[in-house]
C-alpha cells in the first residue's frame, strides 16, 4: 500500500449496534460504512462482540473494494471493554486480523 492512500477505520460499538466507517488518507475521502449488531462485551460477551466487530469491519472494507491489508490504522470506541484484561484481549484480536503495523487505538 502506498503512503499516499492509507485506509483508516473508525468503529463505534455499543449495546444496540456497531458502526464502522472507512476513510482514505490524506484526502479524507469517505469510502464506505456499515453497521451490525451489538458489540458491548458486558452484554453480549467477548466472542460475540469480536464476531460482530470483524463482521462490520469486513463489510465496510468489502463495500469499498478493500481488504484487511489496506488498513493503516483503526480507532475503536467500544462499550464494555473496561478492564485491562478486556483491552488486552481486544488488542490481540485486532492485531491478529490486521498487518503487524496496525496498532489499534481503543477507547471505552
Provide key terms for this protein.
108 residues, five-stranded mixed β-sheet, alpha/beta, 5 strands, 3 helices, Nucleotidyltransferase, domain 5
What does this structure look like?
- The termini are far apart.
- This protein has one domain: ATPase, nucleotide binding domain (Nucleotidyltransferase, domain 5).
- The relative contact order is 0.21.
- It has helices at 41-44, 46-63, 84-97, and strands at 6-13, 18-25, 29-36, 71-78, 105-107.
- The protein has a 5-stranded mixed beta sheet with strand order 3-2-1-4-5.
- With 108 residues, the protein is of the alpha/beta class.
- A hairpin with a 3-residue loop joins β2 (18-25) and β3.
- The chain is globular, with a radius of gyration of 13 Å.
Amino acid at each position: 500500500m502506498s503512503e499516499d492512500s492509507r485506509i483508516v477505520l473508525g468503529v463505534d460499538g455499543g449495546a444496540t449496534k456497531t458502526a464502522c466507517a472507512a476513510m482514505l488518507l490524506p484526502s479524507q475521502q469517505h469510502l464506505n460504512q456499515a453497521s451490525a449488531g451489538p458489540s458491548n462485551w458486558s452484554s453480549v460477551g467477548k466472542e460475540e462482540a469480536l464476531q460482530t466487530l470483524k463482521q462490520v469491519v469486513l463489510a465496510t472494507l468489502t463495500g469499498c473494494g478493500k481488504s484487511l491489508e489496506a488498513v493503516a490504522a483503526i480507532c475503536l470506541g467500544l462499550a464494555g471493554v473496561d478492564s485491562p484484561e478486556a483491552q488486552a484481549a481486544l488488542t490481540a484480536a485486532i492485531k491478529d486480523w490486521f498487518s503487524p503495523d496496525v496498532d489499534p487505538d481503543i477507547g471505552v
